[in-house]
Design brief:
By secondary structure, this protein is mainly α. It is built from 2 helices and no strands. It has 2 domains: 33 residues; 40 residues.
């Protein structure tokens, strides 16, 4: 009886954590946001495209950070 109660309570806890996780991911906007990569091509091509996309995103973020930092430095 104790084991059954333990398993049921564990499952209930997992369901609650899962629901909270889904709610938070929806609030942040990361749920269902798949990378915009065409479905055609083989795995190597997809991996290369994803690598380029990530590199471009990182470069863009670095440029935005540098612009923001320069804008703060130029403030009187």
């Amino acid at each position: 009886m104790k084991a059954l109660f333990g398993v049921v309570s564990l499952l209930v806890a997992l369901v609650i954590v899962g629901l909270v996780l889904v709610k938070q991911m929806k609030a942040v906007g990361q749920l269902g946001a798949a990378p915009a990569i065409p479905a055609s091509g083989n795995v190597h091509e997809k991996a290369t495209q994803l690598e380029r996309k990530v590199a471009d995103d990182v470069a863009k973020a670095m440029e935005q950070a540098a612009s923001a930092r320069n804008a703060e430095v130029e403030k009187p």
